[in-house]
Each structure stands twice: as C-alpha cells, then as structure tokens.
Design a protein that fits this description.
By secondary structure, the chain is α/β, with parallel strands linked by helices. The protein is 46% helix and 13% strand. Helix 3 crosses helix 12 and helix 11 runs antiparallel to helix 12.
C-alpha cells in the first residue's frame, strides 16, 4: 500500500524529532511504499540536510513553517466574503472561551461538523479554489475579524482585554499554524493518491492528514509519543505571552487537537499518559491502540547478559541534564544513602540541554562538592568525590551501554517525564531500577522496579539502600526487567504492530477512487482488490490489460496472465 508519512520538525531531517523512530519504521516495512510530507521548523534544520532514505520512499515534499512568501493571490469580492465568514467562524470559536472548547470535546457523531471544524475545512476549500491563504491570513481583514470576535458580547474577559499587540501576535501565530491549508499536497500526485495518511504527531503535523481525509477521503492514523497539546500549554507560560494571547492560542490548539482526535481513523498513543490526554480531548476509546515506542535492544545484549560486571555499590543516572530531571533531589538522596552505605558511589552520565541545562549542571556540580567534600583513605592519599559527572563518548563512558554496565542500580529522579527511554535502556541492560512516579514510568516498569513519589529524597534514598543491600533481589528484578523490555519495547514489536494497524485501516476504510479513461468515462476495475495485498505484482495491471485488449487485432490470440501473478492471486 502507499503511505503518506506526515512529520513536523522531524524525519527526514538530520536530528529531527522522532527521526530515528520514523527511519526504523520505514525501513522495517519495506513491503509498503512511503511518501514523506515534512514541515520544517527553521532554516538551521533544513541546512543540516536529510538522512539517507531507503528505496521504498517514493517522494519527499517539504514546506517551511518558519517562513512563507506572499502567495500573490488577490481575492475577488466573493472570495473575500467567504474568507471573512470562515475565518470569523474560526476565531469566534477561539474567543468563546472554555465553554466552546468543552462543547467541541463532547461532540456527537463523527460526521457532525462543529463550529471550528466547519470553519477549518471552509478555509481549506477556499485555499484550494483560490490558490492560497497566506495573504488573506496576514491581511487587515484577518486582524479586524479577530478583533470583532474578541470584542463581541459574550466573549470572556481575557479575550475582551486583548490589546492590538496581542491581536497581532495571535494573528501571526494562526497564519503559521494554518499554512498547511495553502499547500499543494492534496491532489492526485500527492496525498490524494495515498491509501493511508500516518501523522507522526498531533497538532499541525496532522493537519495535512485532516485535509486529505476531508478532500480525498483518505483515512488518517495519528501517532503521539509526546502530547503536542501539553507541549503547547507548557510553552505558553506567563513569562512568554500576555493572558489574552495564552487564552486564544490555548483554545486554538485545544480545538485543533479535538478535531484531530475526533476525525482520525485510529489513534496510537505511545503510553497510557498520552492516551488519557487523547480521551480527555474527546477521542473515542474504541479507536485508540497503545503502541509502545520501539528501541534497539541489540547493543545492550552483552551488558544485559553479564550482570556481574556491575559494581555492587554504584548507583547510576543517565539522561539529558535539565531541571525537570531533578538531580538536586537525587544528590540529597545520595547523601542519605552514604550514611547507610559509606561505600556507595553515584555516576551521573548525561549531556546538558541548552544554556539552561549548562547552568543547571554547574549548579549540581557545586552542590555535589558541598555535600561530598573530597575524601581520602589516608593522610598521603589523593581525595576522591563519590559523585562523578561524565558524558557518553568520554574516556570513562565510551558508549551508551557502558553507562549501564558499571552500575548496580539505575535511578530516575524526574519530576516531569513522558516515555522514559533511559529506563527502557536500563531494563534492556538487566539492571534494577528506582524511579519517581511520573509520566509513563509505572506503565513501563510494571512490577520490575521500585517506584517512589517525586521530590521525595528520603523515599528515593530508602529505595536505593534497599536494593544496594540485597544483591539477590537486585538480580531478580534486573532479570525480570530485561524480559519485560524485550517483550514490549523492541523495534520488532513496534514495526509488527504498525504493519497490522496499516492493514486493518485499509481493509476497513479503503479509498474509493474513480479512474477515468482517455475519453473521460469511468474505468471499472482500474484499482483491483489485489493492489491492497502487501506483495509485489509483476503482471500487467487491469488498466494495462484493458488498453492492450482495445489495441489487439481481431485475429490475435488472447494472452493468459503470467503464472507468477496467478499463483500470487491465490
């Protein structure tokens, strides 16, 4: 089958979000054809280049979200009226406040269009008819329409207090978010020819899939390993935007998420945490399939099968260094561990994320030096700090598996976490774990590790001491963790799950296309049923056989179908 893979800020760009997962998915499903439709987030990402693509990727079409030239489209009177009506309906839904969002989340049947959805699709049809929306979304008409909606009777106080600068900010954000409506991706040479659209995230990444579903009836699959709506909420902090801007943009992203969840044929969250967000935004539970992220377990085989390599007194932490990881609580917990077990050591292996991460790492180094002054066994010995800060690729930790090989217990101290990749790596390595109860931690760990409340150094210390002092329990939990990870979180199970979901969607929601012949008349059986079977067909297609029959002389014999094709059809 032909899959339209939709990404935002990710695959096929080098270092993009979910790039590794997408690459493994495409390479693992070589029996299908993939067309990649990528929205880029910046010039730096585009300049970094793309990853090498496998032969099953047919075409790659990209569009920037960070810039857009004026489309040069001049609307006539009728088109301007259509734009004002559709855009007015959309911004009225935003300025309606929480009640509008709540009514959308509690919508009825899938075919019933709500206020936001009908306005969105009205704008998409206008863009298709007129050739674009960029100029209209940047126009004074768009700004005045937003202002009228915010000043209308019944609008919430936050919207009514919006200043001109706030309205300009919201208008610019809506123009960027709605750029996919103006793309030329929805014809017979693009998403209109796909059997299935697979969006690798919600929000703007799924918007082209929504339009392909509306305009071409192509089914939509949405995968979320991180909740886009939650990310938007966190990004709009009180220090980043005015209250009116936060309220209007939160309403937009909430309504867009609701429309995506409601219209998608299937949703595949990566964990129960993302699933709860989707259900809260109106997703039907019957259309949700949890598919855990797939990770490569092969590089951890040697470490996982050699638990005796670990230092029995060493705790380890691996990950990105940032405030959300709460290394401060980990250091305070380790101070209590040292009182119970003086031989204990702590290895912190990670790379800081941005300037904030650099500053946080420096703060943690200072705190470690204050809590644990360099210790020496004798007067003439060199002092040594029981806490070490290391990076993968350095002399102490040349590879990622080496970060887990030398530790007896892996600790996760986060206060915010999505899907804990480092925990899965520790499980592949056969190491016992102590984690805080955040995100999808409990779902991943199951009963194979100890879980404590976040921001509780004493509970974290007690759990670590319990495992350091009980080697048999530590070994038992590590073996159980490795078995669980190999069963649930490998690349192979992820690819097999999506292959089954693809076949399920196409079998239940096939795309009905009308193919015309040279005369413009419908061509029956132009897309035979066997084209949906995941095998390569070497014989002529139905259309080729019809054309051949029409060109055959009256006395020519009829040629039979090749044996390979006949055997495959059976």
């Amino acid at each position: 089958m032909r899959i339209g893979l939709l990404t935002e800020g990710g695959y096929p760009y080098v270092g993009g979000d979910a790039g590794l997962w997408c690459d493994r998915l495409v390479r693992g499903l070589a029996q299908h054809e993939f067309d990649v439709y990528a929205l880029s987030r910046g010039r730096q990402q585009e300049d970094a280049g793309r990853v090498p693509l496998p032969p099953q990727v047919g075409q790659v079409r990209t569009a920037p979200l960070w810039t857009a030239e004026h489309d040069g489209v001049a609307y006539g009177r009728r088109a301007r009226r259509r734009f004002t009506e559709c855009y007015g309906e959309l911004v009225e839904a935003l300025s309606g406040g929480p009640a509008a969002a709540g009514s959308t989340a509690g919508t009825g049947p899938a075919h019933e269009a709500d206020r936001f959805g009908s306005a969105l699709y009205g704008l998409a049809e206008l863009a298709r008819d007129e050739g674009g929306l960029v100029g209209a979304l940047r126009s004074d008409t768009a700004l005045r329409t937003l202002e009228r909606a915010c000043r209308a009777p019944g609008a919430p106080r936050t919207a009514r207090e919006a200043r001109v600068a706030d309205l300009l900010t919201v208008t610019a954000h809506l123009e960027r978010a709605l750029r996919p409506l103006s793309l030329d991706w929805y014809g017979d040479d693009g998403l209109g020819a796909a059997d299935l659209c697979h969006a690798t995230a919600g929000g703007t990444a799924a918007l082209p899939g929504l339009l392909a579903r509306h305009l071409c009836e192509v089914p939509l699959l949405v995968t979320e390993y991180g909740v886009q709506l939650r990310s938007h909420y966190l990004a709009l902090g009180p220090d980043d935007a005015a209250p009116a801007v936060r309220a209007l943009l939160a309403a937009f992203h909430g309504l867009l998420a609701t429309e995506v969840y409601r219209r998608a044929t299937l949703l595949t969250p990566g964990n129960a945490h993302a699933r709860r967000w989707q259900e809260r935004c109106g997703a039907d539970r019957a259309r949700i399939r949890t598919v855990h992220p797939g990770m490569d377990a092969s590089c951890f085989t040697e470490v996982g099968e050699s638990p005796d390599r670990a230092d029995p007194y060493t705790l380890g932490w691996v990950g990105r260094v940032e405030p959300a990881k709460d290394l401060v609580s980990l250091l305070h917990a380790f101070a209590e561990v040292r009182r119970e077990e003086p031989k204990a050591r702590l290895r912190i292996v990670g790379t800081p994320v941005g300037p904030e991460g650099e500053a946080y790492l420096g703060h943690c180094r200072v705190l470690a030096a204050q809590l644990f002054p360099d210790e020496a066994e004798g007067v003439h010995a060199v002092g040594d700090n029981p806490v070490s800060f290391e990076e993968i690729g350095g002399p102490e930790v040349p590879t990622l598996p080496d970060a887990y090989a030398g530790v007896a217990v892996v600790v996760l101290s986060s206060v915010v976490e999505g899907f804990p990749n480092t925990l899965v790596e520790a499980m592949f390595s056969g190491r016992a774990t102590v984690s805080t109860d955040v995100g999808a931690v409990v779902e991943v760990i199951g009963g194979t590790g100890l879980v404590v409340p976040p921001r509780n150094p004493r509970a974290l210390a007690e759990a670590c001491v319990a495992l350091l002092c009980d080697p048999e329990r530590r070994e038992r939990l590590g073996a159980a963790a490795r078995a669980r990870a190999l069963e649930l979180f490998t690349v192979e199970q992820n690819i097999a799950a999506f292959n089954g979901i693809y076949l399920e969607i196409v079998s239940r929601c096939p795309v009905r296309r009308v193919v015309l012949d040279e005369a413009g008349d419908p061509l029956p059986f132009a897309a035979p049923a066997e084209t949906h079977v995941p095998v390569h067909w070497t014989g002529p297609t139905a259309r080729e056989r019809i054309r051949e029959a029409s060109c055959r002389a009256p006395g020519d014999p009829v040629r039979a179908t090749s044996g390979a094709a006949s055997e495959g059809a059976l």
